[in-house]
């Protein structure tokens, strides 16, 4: 079975993001970029499935600027077999990404798509679900455990009330949650080998998808700075303040 | 708090912009190499250093190693960390591809080592010793020994040691007593006791391969009668797996000032089976191959400590609120200003910072020459590079480790009293760094090596590989609109170095004590000029790029700032060192021994 693993290049999780001076977005120039951590978990899961013999080939996909090649090389160093970069200067919205991925699924015919549940830059948490909708495939989102047998993926999902287990008939979409696994460190020999693995670059037009944004970002702003608190002298004072100032009781 | 993020931007600056990859990629051995690959390697190494090794640094220091009944346990977490390190292939960065190594340039390996040393100096000793042993074995071992041991050692499944010192002889190895007697099967029986054996016994690898200096029965007295032997902890079976236990035992570990997670062992050889490495009585050659590698490696330890001590101090200085800026309150909204506003704190931080940056630049200059000495296409180019490496090896070892310890000490000073207590973790840097000035030849020995051996070697040929590029650079850039001012200061320091060199060459020829009395100051003087040269060249690169660098402008501005501080505030020490050297040995040697 072939696995398709989409990976996104995002601002590294260690970086404290700053809003651009003109409020048009987040500053990314000169900022350290890395693979979206949830996608890293997805790659790790795919590699483990391959190591267990449940999968035969892993294709990593990224959509974005030329530098996404580095993100793909990371996936290749972790164990993906080949990579596809859909090169675009736009930052496609989830629906456009889902459409691009659908076109790639048509082309590659994977048995499963494993991806992060969301990207840490915009926290949309939408692409996996949209892709499942477009393909008409089953979906197991927020996966914390995945087991495969006889064309069925048993996925344990992290839901608000606890854990939910669903059985999906393949082909299916799985989106990875934090506790699915702990991604490995790429080994030095694999980093070197990754340079020699195939990486294909295509344009969105090649897949017949228009990635022009449909939404307009009006303004991006830092969250308001938290005001320092006050110390109250007594319970009575606290109650009075909650009633008169905070107006919560 | 022990704070470390790998300085990848500065590493890339040194590799690509200051020294340039072209010299490496022009070599057939590295024709495939490119910046993208190196970046991936450095980034992953940075993760290992910061996510795997750094978290074990303070805990390893507190827990230390435990020796019981000849078995040594490393601190909690070390076994798992070593497994991650080994499985990731980090033991074999620059190892020979014929034996399973990755064959990356020494220039890249040096940066990887710097990160590992910064993350956890104690840990770095275990793979570090193996690396030196591999080099000695590769250069001098028989094909049978190489084939049997190198693949396992390069992979990191087996580790290595170097067993030189005995309780009565450290620096003067001519005195050593361990004996080796030939057996009928071509092997040898070794008997004797060694001390100060780093990684001599531990629980990280399935076998430990000791390279041991010992005397054969027919050995001439002194240093010319020493041979090198390979003695494994477990004798390998036919299939290469560890078999019968050899007569090698750890009789104890040292209780040390620092580096506590590195086991420093006393090793007894009791009818231990070993094999000769290289020719009889030529053991010092093999050991010097190992020692030269190790000396460069020890220099990098100093650099790693300078880097982590600097970052830990800088983070604290930005956070700790005490007093107000002498120029008026900078943070009136807070109870006090962060201490980074104070000029004296700045002085300390800039000193630490420039030590790390300057050593990194010099270190890469030398490690690039190591690559050329191994892989350049012509014999002449290899020899020239090797001569330069030989000259700079004692400088890298002594200068970097001195500055590393000085940086660690300044780091404590930045923390004030909080630096002296364990909780903040910065006193550990000073304790750990202190050993690097001692082992692999004390820094005094390094200075003697420089003035006694390296300077006069080949009629001063080696020295010219240092002097020529510096003087050419000065000539070419005296009127440079960007760095001309810095060049003027560099020229003054370089002049002091040339005068000092002339003085030592003349007076040292007549009276070796003159050279001996000048040696340590001379090494520092040469080191400062090397760093100054690197800083001015870095400034030239930064100056050309800063205005069009966009988001990277901050990096280049900071590089220019570092260079200016070094040139203004550190390099002038060259003049003082010259004056001290010029005064000669008289005042040092004047007192009668009884007066001490």
UniProtKB/TrEMBL annotation, chain A:
Its cofactor is AMP. Keywords: Electron transport, Transport. The keyword Transport applies. CDD domains: ETF_beta. Residues 58-227 form the Sigma-54 factor interaction domain. SUPFAM superfamilies: Adenine nucleotide alpha hydrolases-like (SSF52402). It comes from the Bacteria. One of its GO terms (biological process) is regulation of DNA-templated transcription. The keyword ATP-binding does not apply. GO terms for molecular function: ATP binding; electron transfer activity. Heterodimer of an alpha and a beta subunit. The electron transfer flavoprotein serves as a specific electron acceptor for other dehydrogenases. It transfers the electrons to the main respiratory chain via ETF-ubiquinone oxidoreductase (ETF dehydrogenase). Belongs to the ETF beta-subunit/FixA family. This is Electron transfer flavoprotein subunit beta.
UniProtKB/TrEMBL annotation, chain B:
It is an enzyme of class 1 (oxidoreductase). This is 3-methylmercaptopropionyl-CoA dehydrogenase. Its EC number is 1.3.99.41. GO terms for molecular function: flavin adenine dinucleotide binding; oxidoreductase activity, acting on the CH-CH group of donors. It comes from Lichenicoccus roseus. The keyword Flavoprotein applies. It catalyses: 3-(methylsulfanyl)propanoyl-CoA + oxidized [electron-transfer flavoprotein] + H(+) = 3-(methylsulfanyl)acryloyl-CoA + reduced [electron-transfer flavoprotein]. Residues 466-591 form the Acetyl-CoA dehydrogenase-like C-terminal domain. Residues 79-156 form the Acyl-CoA dehydrogenase/oxidase N-terminal domain. InterPro entries: Acyl-CoA_dh-like_C_dom, Acyl-CoA_Oxase/DH_mid-dom, Acyl-CoA_Oxase/DH_mid-dom_sf, AcylCo_DH-like_C, AcylCo_DH/oxidase_C, AcylCoA_DH/ox_N, AcylCoA_DH/ox_N_sf, AcylCoA_DH/oxidase_NM_dom_sf. Residues 282-449 form the Acyl-CoA dehydrogenase/oxidase C-terminal domain.
